[in-house]
Amino acid sequence: MLILTCPYCGVKAEETELQPGGEAHLKRVGPAGSDDEFEDYMFARKNAKGVHFERWRHAYGCGKWFLAARDTATLQVYGTYSAQTPHPPARIVAAIRDVHPDWQPDWTETAGADAE
Amino acid sequence: MSHTPPFRLARGGRLIDRAFQVPFRFDGRHLRGLQGDSLASALLANGQMLMGRSFKYHRPRGPIASGAEEPNALFGLGQGGRFEPNQRATTTALLPGMMLRSQNCWPSLDADIGAVNSWLSPIFPAGFYYKTFIHPRPFWKHVFEPIIRHSAGLGRAPTDPDPDRYEQAYAHVDTVVVGGGIAGLLAAQRAADQGGSVLVLEQTAIWGGRTPVDHPGGQARIDDLLADLRGRGNVTLRRNTMATGLYDHGYLLAREALADHDPNQGIPRQRLWRIRAGHVVTATGALERPLAFACNDVPGVMLASAVRDMIVDYGVAPGQRVVVVTNNDDAYRTALIAADAGLEVSVIDARRTADGDLPQAARARNIPVLMNTGIAKVKGGRHVEGVVLCDAEGEGKATGGIDCDVVAMSGGWSPVVHLWSHCGGKLTWDEPQAMFRPNPERPPLGADGQGNVSATGAANGDLRCAGDLERAEQPTMPVWCMPRNAPYKLRSKMWLDFQNDVKVSDVELAAREGYASVEHTKRYTTLGMATDQGKVSNINGLAVLSKALNQPIPQTGTTTFRPPYTPLTLATIAADARGEAFQPLRKTPMHDWHARNGASWEPVGHWRRPYCYPKGGEDRHAAVNREILAVRRGVGTLDASTLGKILVKGPDAGRFLDMMYTNMMSTLPVGKCRYGLMCSENGFLMDDGVVVRLTEDSWLCHTTTGGADRIHGHMEDWLQCEWWDWQVYTANLTEQYAQIAIAGPKAREVLERLPGSIDLSQDALPFMTWAEGDIAGIPARVYRISFSGELSYEIAVPTSRGLELWERLHEAGRDLGITPYGTEAMHVMRAEKGFIMIGDETDGTIIPQDLGLGWAISKKKTDYLGKRAQSRSHMKDRSRWQLVGLESLDGRVIPDGAYAVDEGVNPNGQRKTQGRVTSSYHSPTLDRPIAMALVRHGTERMGQVIEFPMPSGEVLKGRICDPVFYDKEGARLNG
Questions:
Q1: Contact (CB, 8 A) for B436 and B417
Q2: Chain B residue numbers touching A30 (CB-CB < 8 A)
Q3: How far is CA A63 from the centre of its chain?
Q4: Using omega within 30 degrees of 0 as the cis cutoff, is the peptide bond preceding A20 cis?
Q5: Which of B16, B217, B336, B700 has the fewest CB within 10 Å, making it most exposed?
Q6: DSSP secondary structure string, B560-593?
Q7: Which distant-in-sequence residues (6+ apart) come within 8 Å of B542 by Cβ?
Q8: Domain check: are B594 and B707 in the same one?
Q9: Per the database record, which ranges form the SoxA A3 domain (chain B) (predicted)?
Q10: pLDDT at position B402
């Protein structure tokens, strides 16, 4: 069972204290979106073997949703961070690159984007 | 018969106390063992070598091992609720009065009818159940399956509840060392030197592992280490504790036996340790491998280590004349110890030479040693009578023979890599030692990406005893089949998996039939699938498979090692979470009143709600009918406290609720109520309830009883993760308010009898409005909402005042016949009115449009959760099933869930369907059955009759009608 640190209350929480929420950083597609865009948003998941960003709620703790960057193959946790950010912050990217120097994010990194 | 007493040696036995005899019973026979005996040693001491029957062929079997890997000597232990099947004789300590029952045999272990399977073995090869039982087809259901079900499974499950207590405990430790042998104790010492906390777990009651048996100075060395560790404040030593599984991020499960098979101690029987380890050291040792020679399953053929354990630990001789057969030096220890015990010994060694310390010591003791020799065949049926010898490299031509009553075999050792492998640790093939051992480059990783497990000692492939007791041993020579070029006749008698009767020929057959993957071969042959999970058979099996596939062993690989290492009883996993402690029970403030008034309960989520209140010998059906009529004709009360109540407040609360609900909630005026629908982003209806506008910036959202926590979490998800810049707070106030529905034509009259500050008149408080004030001196909110179709008020008061109000209402309405009603009356009344119920009319695939609830979907809003999904083609498909009412044609209730059939059949040959019943009741109000159903094109088919075939063969018919059965115009709402 995983241990993830809740970035809000600081508790090192065991998986049984947490509610899983699936893939993080999905961009909501509303009524204006096409069928294909909506299908992608609703159903298409990366299901990555390796680096993965996911949503967790500290359900039996402070109640906050947070995000975790984790390696699904090795179980390494690169860090947890606020749910209120469109992309993983720079320190998470750095932690991933410590292990996978060639890892490339699928969003455009901008200077000063780390708004934690 | 060559098997003769005495079996208990005159001397020796480091674990037994000869001063204390221990009586026990075996299949009804009264026997005696000694204090310190295992069940296996006690039975062997009584000359009982036959301890079980194999699973498939019912072959007679004796014990082959002395530890947890034992596949044969399994018994049913105890009686009644304490009966336990499949208890290993080799690891279960003998206690006075124990009752052992043999398994997998009938009528008795000695005369087992099932042994006929052994003669029929040519029709039971590998994969026989995929081949033998295919034809003729009807035979499967009527002949094969009943027989297989009867004979399947080893042992019998107990039928009575387990009367013992089990508990769980938690530990957080820097280093956990699994294994209390010399490697583990040395590792514990090293870890303790670093200053962190250290926990050492030993599966047996005895510290030291193999070292005290295998080395002259072993016990003294172990004692020194124990004395040192016991003197350290940061070390905890825990015996009788089996580490069964290692999971993510250092989570280790271990089962501690506290009072196993000894209920009189008054303490929990077992304790499950849930350990978080910073680092785990596996010092789990190694398991000896059998050799594959013909008839290696005859009782009396044992692992060499087990034979010497019996002699050294228990002073028991499994026989008087021992043949040791080996491919390594270690087995010579057995020869030397057997000779020391006064037994007749000879050694058969498959290697060309053996000049190490141990073989030389054996020769010096004048023990006959035959090199380059193998066993062609074991003689004897129910017990070893001798061996036929052959050239180890040949085809099995007899070169001689030895009469004996025990064969001590050793095919080398396999490190116990289970814990290492459970959580992702990889293995490497060690060619010189012919074993898989942990690959130190690829350990399981912790959260920080660093290895969090290390292996040491024999578990790491270091078979020399650790520390200063090392001895030089010559390399083993892999022997996967003895003799090397044995013909089929011999290979078909060479057992690999003893419990499941898998032989060398079966694995070869699987390879011939195309099973190239070791995982597939395992499942096809059942190799390693028995209760011992292949601890003794695994490596031999995949070596045979590799040879058959003509590929190196590492290319074949191993099957997956999964927890638990040894079986874990469900009672230990459940521990105290049984009975009333299984899960919390939520009670409303009126719970005890309901109980006093005879409530028949219904579980709803974690709540218990009154289903109805049977009176004076009524059954539940009669009680429900009486309650409904009491409400329709007079007045009744429902405890609605379990309804979810979520406060949503803030400048953006209206905007937020417009996204949560399909309706427009932002325009709801203060003082009014609105029925709302909530959909998932996928468009499906997930909850419903009345929303109340409390103030300019706050709304109270009612949810279904079971939905409160889920819906609150759903709201928080969108607020925290999507619209985090919106200024909204939510609070789940479900338990802060008691809520009572008072319904019926006389509801207002009863309520007005209580003193209060709220004008309850139709003009002041019309339908779908609410007011605040006090009733009977209790601060209250009154909502004019109705789920029954009657004049109805729902009154919310502080939880602590709920019972008080309930009792005041019942006093006030006594002369009017005020009646408490339960959830079933509520269900029937809502169905009479055609109101939907989440979970009845919905099942996670239903959208509001299916239920005729289009009126509750705002056309003005540009967005709400589910809006985009509801515009997808399948959601707009006009052939979706639609909600309608159903009238039964013959007065019988059409069962809930029944399917309406259509013309034609689907590709599976089943009748096509065109609808199903979602709610169905007998309506006491109308005195006839009513039902709601989802039917294709339902709303366009009023008056048509559809058919519901029953399992009995008869067909019920229903006429499609409007789902509102009672008071269509809604006149009763206003009393």
A1: yes
A2: 863, 867-868
A3: 17
A4: no
A5: B217
A6: PP-S-SS---HHHHHTT-SGGGSS--B--TTHHH
A7: B518, B553, B556, B557, B558, B559
A8: yes
A9: 492-576
A10: 97
Q: Which helix (H) or strand (E) holds B138?
A: helix B137-139
Rounded Cα–Cα distance for residues B349 and B205 (Å): 34
- Which DSSP string corresponds to B203-252? SSSSTBTTHHHH-TTHHHHHHHHHHHHHT-TTEEEE-SEEEEEEEGGGEE
Interface of B with A in 256-285 (CB under 8 A): 276
- CB-based contact, A74 to chain B, within 8 Å: yes
| Ranges of H-type helices in A19-81 | 35-43
> Could you tell me the sign of the dihedral formed by the alpha carbons of B275, B280, B283, B289, in that order?
positive
Q: Note whether residue B884 is domain-resident.
A: yes
pLDDT surpasses 60 at A112: no
Amino acid at B84: E
Q: Is any Cβ of chain B less than 8 angstroms from the Cβ of A115?
A: no
Average pLDDT over residues A14-28: 95
pLDDT given at position B262: 81
Instruction: Please return the burial class of B919, using the count of CB atoms within 10 Å of its CB with bins 0-12, 13-18 and 19+.
Output: buried
pLDDT, residue B464, reads: 80
* CB–CB contact A84 B720 (8 Å): yes
SS3 state at B110: coil
Say if residues B34 and B9 touch (Cβ distance below 8 Å).
no
Domain count of the fold of chain B: 3
> What is the domain range of residue B177?
166-287+415-469
Paired sense of beta strands B369-371 and B344-349, if any? parallel
Contact with chain A for residue B722, Cβ under 8 A: yes
Find the Cα–Cα–Cα–Cα dihedral B862, B865, B871, B874, rounded to 10°: -170
State yes or no: cis peptide before B6, omega within 30 of 0: yes
Q: Give residues with Cβ within 8 angstroms of A75, minimum separation 6.
A: A2, B248, B249, B423, B424, B444, B445, B446, B447
Residue labelled with tokens 């803030």: B650
Q: Where are the alpha helices (DSSP H) in B390-486?
A: 418-422
Task: Write out chain B residues lying below 8 Å of A74, CB-based.
Answer: 424, 445, 449
- The single residue listed with the structure tokens 């009657």 is B790
Q: Is the ipTM of this complex over 0.90?
A: yes
| Record: fold of A3-26+48-99 | Folate-binding fold (3.30.2270)
Angle between the N-to-C axes of helices B504-512 and B538-549, in degrees from 0 to 180, rounded to the nearest 10: 40
pLDDT reported for residue B1: 39
B873 and B912 together in one domain: yes
**B661 and B610 together in one domain:** yes
Query: For position B905, which CATH number holds?
Result: 3.30.1360.120
Phi, psi angles (nearest 5°) of residue B460: -100, 10
pLDDT at B263: 78
Q: Are residues B843 and B828 in the same domain?
A: no
Averaged in consecutive runs of 10 residues, what is the pLDDT profile of chain B (975 residues)? 74 96 95 97 96 87 96 91 91 94 79 70 68 66 66 76 93 98 96 98 96 91 97 97 97 95 86 97 97 97 98 96 96 96 97 93 97 97 96 96 97 96 95 94 94 96 71 82 96 94 94 92 90 90 94 92 93 92 93 98 95 96 98 98 98 98 97 98 97 98 94 96 96 97 97 96 96 97 97 98 98 98 98 96 96 95 97 95 96 96 93 96 97 97 97 95 96 88
* Residue B567, token pair as written in the block: 């079986």
Residues in chain B, overall count: 975
Domain assignment present for B250:
yes
Give me the pLDDT at residue B5, please: 73
